[in-house]
Amino acid sequence: MSRTLHSINVSRARAVEIDGQSVMTGIFKTPVTGPVAVRPMGLEGDEQADPSVHGGLGKAVYAYPQEHYPFWQTVRAQASVSAWDAPLAPGALGENLSIRGLVEGDAFIGDVLRFPDCELAVSEPRFPCFKFNAAMGFNQAAKLMTQNAWCGFYLAVRVPGSLRAGDGFELIPGPREVGIQELFRARMNRAKSR
Predict the structure, then answer these.
(1) How remote is the C-alpha of 82 from its chain's centroid?
(2) Which of 20, 60, 139, 183 has its CA 20 to 30 A from that of 177?
(3) pLDDT tens-digit readout, 93-114
(4) Domain extents for the chain?
């Protein structure tokens, strides 16, 4: 199976109004061209607004599978926030890396994505918040992400270097003890039961 980096997406943190309140967010990512430096705390040109839930060494980079984009394009059209034929731009789900060839059901904590000039280790699933609803344009987006466990995953930087859109990557299996979807569902179920 071919695994590729479709797009690299970054943003600076900025204030936006969500539900009548001004909040800082870095969720509105846009694609960048050329090589992008990968450092232990993330990608050059990217900021996280709330380091208590995003960023840091364990969550330096966020990857999301392009395979789910047709679903999100359809539900956004059904929610009347976009036209049926309006493509969803890379980075629309807040991801730094829009990838192809690796979905949550095939990713495990400790797996390594080996790119030509850096290595990133799968560290944990992403958990949606109210900012995700705002980015997608409708209030059921986080619920749909939770139901499908299409959460994407955070990556820790094992070997700094650079990335370029179009790079292929190799999946180096880790211990394969805890899967991304398994961990995501367990934590979401625990949160519901509280």
Answers:
(1) 21
(2) 60
(3) 999 999 999 999 999 999 999 9
(4) 4-193
